[in-house]
Specification:
The protein is of the alpha/beta class. It has 15 helices and eight strands. The strands form three sheets. A four-stranded parallel β-sheet has the order 1-8-5-2. Strands 3-4 form a two-stranded antiparallel ribbon. A hairpin with a 3-residue loop joins strand 6 and strand 7. The radius of gyration is 25 Å and the shape is elongated.
Length: 316
């Protein structure tokens, strides 16, 4: 997959995911020694996108298990095809000669009659894949225990069928929005990079990838707006993808920046809960956000100028 941290960093950049060398090094080491990666951080910070980008950068198949409350082993590992089992038994009983019921039992509980879920499919791949176990914090500790065998021995024990050993070891990513604390056994088996919202400079670069025709000032403004919104104590702070949506909407409307007069047309993109909408409609709230966004953008521009001057002086 990857031969060095630098190759991880460049590969992710090639597919449009911007990260730092620390995260790239963690991913490289986890891949090299077959360790799962547990990505924790706020919703919308890019955890799922990181796993998907690793798959794209490595040109590997991505298999995804989307977790939710009440998920069971059948959804994750798979289940026997009962209709096919019944049809097989019916055909055998109608065939000429006595039935070998013991052989029939072995046949209908074999792999040929089992419909694989994402976990089983991942370890049966001919070539190494990326397995994404998304939002694992939505499941309970009992389901976490199901994963421990896979992440420790790279096997799955399936009742009636037996133990399936991995043909290839998948590169496992688990994401958590920290809705609950995950168990220590799962943490112990994983590498643990925290994925937080990007710095303003990196967010501006991310937005630039989505709206390359927009000006650098617009990219800085969007990054400054993201910082302002995330510091405003919203029920649902905006994700990276939502700020990309704002940038694309601005480009569609021919806007270089958001003004206070744009409140009505921009609020549906900026806030996503009724509570946050009411907060933003309070006197001066939207105006404060826009003012703070401009200050953040100006600070970014000043920092870029200082960095450029320092680079020029260093070359003299």
């Amino acid at each position: 997959m990857f031969q060095s941290p630098e190759q991880v960093l460049s590969g992710l950049g090639r597919v449009g995911y911007l990260t730092d060398r620390k995260t790239a090094t963690t991913i490289y080491r986890a891949r090299a020694i077959n360790k799962p990666v547990l990505l924790e951080g706020p919703a919308g910070a890019g955890k799922t996108e990181l796993a998907q980008s690793v798959a794209r950068a490595a040109r590997a198949e991505l298999l995804r298990l989307q977790c939710y409350q009440g998920i069971n082993e059948e959804k994750a590992i798979g289940q026997f095809d009962k209709s096919l089992q019944e049809l097989f038994v019916l055909l055998k009983t109608k065939s000429e000669g006595p039935c070998d019921w013991e052989q029939i039992r072995r046949d209908v509980t074999s792999r040929a009659f089992f419909l694989a879920g994402p976990l089983l499919a991942a370890i049966e791949q001919e070539e190494r894949c990326v397995l994404l176990i998304d939002e694992i914090d939505k499941v309970d500790y009992a389901f976490e225990a199901v994963l421990l065998e896979l992440l420790s021995a790279w096997t799955l024990s399936i009742p009636k069928m037996g133990t399936v050993r991995a043909r290839t070891i998948p590169f496992v990513f688990m994401t958590s929005n920290q809705e609950r604390r995950l168990g220590d056994p799962l943490r112990r088996r994983s590498f643990y990079p925290v994925v937080d919202h990007p710095t303003a400079e990196r967010e501006a670069a991310i937005v630039k990838n989505k709206t390359p025709k927009a000006s650098a000032a617009t990219h800085r403004f969007i990054a400054g707006l993201a910082m302002a919104l995330r510091s405003f104590n919203l029920e649902k702070p905006p994700s990276i993808s939502e700020m990309n949506d704002v940038a694309q909407a601005m480009q569609l409307l021919g806007m270089d920046e958001i003004l206070t007069a744009h409140k009505d047309i921009m609020l549906p993109l900026i806030v996503k809960t009724e509570g946050d909408r009411k907060r933003m409609l309070m006197k001066q709230a939207f105006e404060v956000i826009i003012h703070t966004a401009k200050k953040n953008a100006d600070a970014m521009e000043a920092e870029e100028v200082r960095a450029t001057i320092a680079a020029i002086e260093g070359q003299v």
